[in-house]
Amino acid sequence: MKKVRKLWKFFHFYLYIIIMKEKDLVLLWKSLSMQKNKEIILKTKDGKQIPVKVLFPGEFNINEGPDFQNAKLIIQGKEIVGDIEFHIHSLDWFKHRHFEDEKYNRVVLHIVLSHNSKFRIENKNKVRINTLIIDKEHYGIENISNLNENHLNIYTRLPCFYLLMRKSNKFRIPVILQNAGKKNLLAKIKRTFQYYNKCITKYNNIWETFNQVLYLSLLRAFGYEKNKYGFEKYGKDIEYKEYVYLIKTGKERKLYKMLKPYIITCRTRPCNFPYIRFNQFLNLIKNTGNVLFKQIMKIFICTKDFNQFAKKFQNIINLTSTHKIGTQRVKIILYNAIFPVLYLYFKVIHNYPEKNKLITYWLQIKGFENNHIIKKMHKLLNYNLPKNLEIYNQGLMYLYRKFCMHKKCEECELYKKLSE
Predict the structure, then answer these.
(1) How far is the C-alpha of 175 from the C-alpha of 189, rounded, in Å?
(2) Which of 34, 38, 109, 247 is 20 to 30 Å apart from 154, CA to CA?
């Protein structure tokens, strides 16, 4: 009877492995990490139990790549920050070709249900990845099947979430976010200043210098998140003068061919495809020619409203374009790419009235950007502000990229001030 029971348990376990999906392991990780002690028992291939203390379970990844990103764990006394990947069998690492994919280079923990691989689990850089097994005897297989799928939609709470529950802290948030937003804007101004320092030595004319600076800043903005560095490098290799000359001589196809080595093709919506964005930028240069910076500066001086400025700029791009650009995207480009260059120009020529006008735009414009970072931060922090200003969104992005993304809660400005 004992042998029959053992065989039945063995058969039941492997039958469940066949039916079970990786999603169930992800649900288990999410469920266990939400417990009070936040310590998960895993084991090695030899059967040795290893307690994993979860400081932050990671952010559920809806795109290509590891299942959870930016997790913070303590394994055998060592603090580890990185991504986590789940598989039913450890051999799936090789079946899915993760060892050839750069997206999996930040994986620090590989969690499986059965460790059937005789090969060493490594990433593309030949760095070994810890592979641990879910202890089925400790948790029981039934716990996995009874889990609710809504766990996948719950964003992991940061310590700030609980501090924001205090009534006294709600008045501090706008000030903290505004200061963080200013730092984000200063970083953009510093970047344009770096462009300016490199261009001023090449060009004698101030208009040519700022044409090149704006050209680089706009290319970076039209590259969006995935291709901003590629588009920026393209602009450094092919100068503005050469770019305009190729358009005038009817060699637009050559510009598209030259772009190919600089871009990353990824899973995006059709409107965000790199060549479509590049086409929009091409039409902007077509309609402005050699006076790109002059024309945009004149529009800014003549308009008294940010929305009016955005409409006029949108009309320049959409005048001859087959791929129209949206109002929200235009506002993002103005705020992040054009305003820093205009600010630098007014600072160089000592035009203080226009510079102050630009600062009021920056600080008083209503919020229009609503990307995945801002949505994520709203759900993580769960707060309500009296005004919806773009400077607050900039502050959220600054805090996320500098602190939240790397789980540096102890160093975070928001956490420090709210915990006083």
Answers:
(1) 21
(2) 109
pLDDT digits (tens, 9 = 90+) for 350-408: 888 888 888 888 888 888 888 878 887 777 676 667 678 889 889 888 988 888 777 67
Look at the chain and report how many structural domains it folds into. 2
Would 223 be classed as within a structural domain?
yes
Task: Say which residues have a Cβ less than 8 Å from residue 47's Cβ, sequence separation at least 6.
Answer: none
State whether 318 and 214 are in the same domain.
yes
Q: Are residues 304 and 326 in the same domain?
A: yes
Determine, yes or no, domain membership for 136.
Answer: yes
**pLDDT > 60? residue 19:** no
Q: How far apart (Å, rounded) are the C-alpha atoms in residues 390 and 328?
A: 12
Same domain, yes or no: 152 and 176: no
Q: What is the DSSP secondary structure assignment for residue 122, as one 8-state letter?
A: B
> Same structural domain for residues 315 and 260?
yes
Where is 74: in which H helix or E strand? strand 68-75
In a shared domain, residues 180 and 77: no
Shortest CA distance to 337 belongs to which of 410, 401, 408, 281?
A: 281
Tokens of 376: 């994520």
CB 391 within 8 A of CB 363: yes
Residues 405 and 195 sit within 8 Å (Cβ to Cβ)? no
Burial of 357 (0-12, 13-18, 19+ CB in 10 A): middle
**Structural domain for 205, as ranges:** 169-404
Could you count the other beta carbons within 10 Å of the beta carbon of residue 201?
8
β 68-75/78-89 pair status: antiparallel
411 occurs within a structural domain = no
For residue 380 the two structure tokens come to 């993580």
Within a domain: 306: yes
377: CB partners within 8 A, 6+ apart:
396, 397, 399, 400, 404
Instruction: State pTM to two decimals.
Output: 0.67
pLDDT number for residue 141: 47
